[in-house]
């Protein structure tokens, strides 16, 4: 019997860019990638992918043979449909996805030659995920809660109450900066 897992988190369309040249500077002890205003920067390499904590974990777990569904929000746009198609192709159930009037979340990732990255993130529809039916939690064996750009305390409270009642279930949480700063 497969473990039934629910991931909760953001779902994005990603664009990875690697500039042909880069200028690294030190700024208060931090290595920074710099470009001059007005420059036209040639891209050495680019590729599109899918990401977001909810999607990435769901795909990984599906590839490991788990029965997995994802809960989050996508836009009613071409990117949202691409994200959904990608998840389905990877064997992830999308029946709990919410659709927003906002555009789907999007990231542009600037990759330096060192391997370090800078991520420009537009949360879009992911920031519309504010609630869900707590009865869904009783249908799964485990929950992987990933960063949500605007997760309300209400969402965390529902998850907390469920795991207080069912401590034998598995919960993993990968908080983002916003959650850690609360």
Describe this structure as you would to a colleague.
It is a single chain. The protein has 182 residues and is of the alpha/beta class. The protein has helices spanning 53-63, 78-89, 153-165, 177-180; strands at 4-8, 12-19, 23-27, 30-34, 43-51, 67-71, 73-75, 98-100, 105-111, 117-122, 142-145, 170-173. It has a four-stranded parallel sheet with strand order 6-1-11-12, with helices on one face. Strands 5-2-9-10 form a four-stranded mixed sheet. Strand 3 (23-27) and strand 4 form a beta hairpin. It is globular, with a radius of gyration of 18 Å. The model has no long low-confidence stretch (mean pLDDT 89).
Detail the topology: elements first, then pairings:
Elements: E1 4-8, E2 12-19, E3 23-27, E4 30-34, E5 43-51, H1 53-63, E6 67-71, E7 73-75, H2 78-89, E8 98-100, E9 105-111, E10 117-122, E11 142-145, H3 153-165, E12 170-173, H4 177-180
Parallel strand pairs: 1-6, 1-11, 2-9, 7-8, 11-12
Antiparallel strand pairs: 2-5, 3-4, 9-10
């Amino acid at each position: 019997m497969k473990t039934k897992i629910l991931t909760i988190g953001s779902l994005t369309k990603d664009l990875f860019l690697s500039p042909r040249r880069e200028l690294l500077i030190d700024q208060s002890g931090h290595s920074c990638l710099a470009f001059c205003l007005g420059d036209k920067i040639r891209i050495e390499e680019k590729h599109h992918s899918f990401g977001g904590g909810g999607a990435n974990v769901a795909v990984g777990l599906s590839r490991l043979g788990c029965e997995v569904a994802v809960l989050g929000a996508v836009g009613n746009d071409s990117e949202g449909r691409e994200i959904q198609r990608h998840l389905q192709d990877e064997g992830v159930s999308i029946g709990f996805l919410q659709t927003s009037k906002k555009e789907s979340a999007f990231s542009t990732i600037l990759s330096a030659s060192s391997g370090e990255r800078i991520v420009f993130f537009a949360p879009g529809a992911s920031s519309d995920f504010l609630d869900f039916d707590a009865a869904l939690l009783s249908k799964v064996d485990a929950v992987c809660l990933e960063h949500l750009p605007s997760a309300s305390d209400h969402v965390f409270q529902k998850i907390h109450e469920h795991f207080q009642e069912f401590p034998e279930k598995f919960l993993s949480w990968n908080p983002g900066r916003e959650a850690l700063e609360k």
